């Protein structure tokens, strides 16, 4: 068995008592991290339509799971039934929207490619309708699930496969072990592998920045040498791939026949830099942008290999846009997004994703989610997952990538009705996953089948809304209304004296 050390263990942090920071509710069993707003321009998302897709992990997270929040910090949906999740996103497949996320055991953070899991595709009822996996003995790694646009029929997936390897050329054992990085393009409908490529076949050990004598990796099957550590895959319209490799600190372009066409960054870069700040370290999430003239990435600036070795090349992690001229073979920086209010490096994870005229940078193991004007690079919005507590950075709470959708593009249709808790005459109502509730109407009546008199209508106030039970008769129910007055759903009937559900 391979050991699965969470980042904080690797960093030597003491495991904290679980459950310090979570928010709980009366009317729902969900337990979530707060989504704490640090800065917000009045111009940013004025109607709170954004839906941020988050999977918090880390030693301070008692209940890992997926969650959706609004720009005002309000929780919209949470579910921890699949446990550990990564890379929560909305993607199109076959003309339909799916919530996609990796679930399984493992952590993205350690100096090894990790994750023995699968990718879930959920419909707008938050129901899993499809699982997608790599064809690989260890299953699917957590780092990438990128549905290839514009066809939206195949997915790019990372995996790793531990194999024996002679590591003596870099000072390791002759009978050593190697974490072979695998990329596959999968036909989502059939599961067939359309492209299969491994680091062992193409990338020399000498390209790695993973110092084997420091990390001690490679000595056993449980602790293989992670030379390359692929963390993203993208495909261009000509059918070539680009991968981001954290441990060789390079982006590789790979032809459909498997040949490496060029390297950007690392020890063997094929590009000449024009101007400053084009270099990157331990980067994540490399994507073609702007008609394939630019690559966006998240430049972590730092990495952890083992408990005592933090490699810090840059004092601050940033989201970057690099202009990549494949004829002149030059690279230059065109956009750089800095964190605020603090600046810091990130030891692992992170993302840079444009949405219209804004860009969202997810700072990974420093769980900040920040939105910027693409044009001016100015910060518009900053939030932290969990409390705003620096002792939780780089270990306590992390979020692999930060993506969003909005209530304009996505409507959640929960399969369960609104849920109610009656406590001491007060009524608490929530509807996990409903995206378009504007208000709740309290209905009452003298018996289970006669609950139809409206007592009051109150605006929805956060994930859970408190309604006074004053003026109610023996039985109550709560209806959820859209802004246009349409009833979207109604709770069961509850008996107010004991709070028990009495029927529908
Ligand atoms: C519904 O609310 C009750 C409390 O009234 C709670 O015990 C239960 O866990 C809730 N169900 C869900 C799915 O959150
Ligand atoms: C594929 O998905 C993208 C959005 O991710 C969408 O713009 C495009 O129209 C989709 N293509 C097809 C063929 O549905
Ligand atoms: C989502 O899938 C579930 C299970 O197949 C199904 O019951 C539900 O109706 C689907 N929801 C939508 C909105 O398609
Ligand atoms: C998908 O995987 C999840 C988690 O491993 C499992 O619970 C579920 O049964 C699978 N669903 C399908 C449709 O294969
Ligand atoms: C992918 O390539 C590797 C290395 O060449 C090979 O061992 C593996 O069987 C291939 N997997 C598939 C599904 O083709
Ligand atoms: C690995 O680290 C050791 C100890 O700091 C150092 O002596 C050695 O030069 C490093 N090796 C490489 C290849 O950087
Ligand atoms: C692989 O494809 C590249 C780009 O299309 C081409 O330049 C190269 O010659 C091909 N190599 C082989 C061995 O076919
Ligand atoms: C590049 O960095 C150097 C050293 O910090 C500085 O002197 C120079 O002005 C910078 N050049 C540009 C184009 O920003
Ligand atoms: C920050 O988190 C630590 C645990 O990591 C806790 O001891 C401390 O009280 C927290 N500080 C605040 C201000 O919440
Ligand atoms: C920067 O990160 C380090 C390591 O996680 C942490 O100790 C420090 O408090 C952070 N600094 C700020 C300003 O957030
Ligand atoms: C009212 O709003 C809901 C939720 O946004 C929407 O589904 C429905 O179509 C609207 N109805 C009318 C009549 O506009």
From TrEMBL:
Signal peptide span: 1-19
A Pfam family this chain is assigned to: Arylsulfotran_2
Keywords: Signal
InterPro entries cross-referenced by the UniProt entry: Arylsulfate_ST, ASST-like
Highest taxon of source: Eukaryota
UniProt-recorded name of the protein: ASST-domain-containing protein
Transmembrane segments: none
